[in-house]
Amino acid sequence: MKHLRSLTLAPWHYGALFFACLFLGTSCQKKQTPSAAQVLPLATEVAPAVVSSISETKPVTPVAQPATTPPAATGAAALRFVGYNVENWLILEERYDYETRVSSKNAPKPEKEKAAVISILTDAKPDVLGVCEIGSKEDLMEIQKRLKSAGLDLPHSHFSSGVDSSRHLGLLSRFPIASTATPADTQYKLDGKEYGIQRGVLDATVQTPDSRLWRFLGVHLKSKREVEDNDQNLMRINEAQLVRKHIDEILKADPQARIIGYGDFNDTRASSPIRIIQGPNNSPRAMSPIGLRDSRKQYWTHFWAKEDVYARLDYIFFSQALKKDVMFEECKILDPENWNDASDHRAVLGVFR
Question: Which CATH number fits domain 13-352: 3.60.10.10, 3.40.640.10, 3.40.50.1820, 3.40.50.300?
Fold first, then answer.
């Protein structure tokens, strides 16, 4: 079997699972890294019980947004957003099938996996979909076409890339994309060597029929896999700092910006990259994470088969202007039976009024 299809645990297992996910993550042992407390204080997570054509991103200054967002129309329909790492919807030089234990050269994502992704998404019925780990604009178009054939029409699209030539970000929307942007600063230095954000930052503003603007920021931070020339955790921290800088620039220009941050952050809840992106606690700058859980009240979104580790790596954050619009009781981790046929990640759903 490639993965486990479901996870059922006795009550005493949950504590063990939590610490395994928190400390093991999805990688080899980390090298020395700064303490999370030395970076930024942790923002409070809000749990559910509490409260068109495809365009490629160019290196330009972020598009200026209106100083104020139009008020919501009376009786405005809820906006459903799904963030999803679709696991290598691209051509891999060497693809290994865990079920058949066979490797294939220059192989696309298997048809069984593609069909499962489309099934999960059509059942979720998102108005806006943010995907990680697609290969090309043509791959994004393929997802768009397959969804339309299955009854989910998301005609507006945006494709974004970073320095990684293989894995990219994409956004599909039922509503028009009013504008797109990219961070002014996407480079950082470690040990005198310059690096760029590997998968970039997707920045697209969607306008709903009630004239409201929703700014989606998609990321896929550096993986936990070790690299030869530097510390993978330090690389992820630096990428997170650049994302945070971009968020601060948006909020400086428009403190009421309605931002939804999402993606595969490749790190766990108390890690430095997550704290950095959240920003200071109880601050107008804070990006609050939605406390997503599945039908079993579990929080993990990723299963790493090689190490037999479950972890929460996928998040949806919201800016403070959206706090009253989050329908927490509707937000969740999608866990249909076929989740593991589709991807090593589970999709996350955010619903906003």
Answer: 3.60.10.10
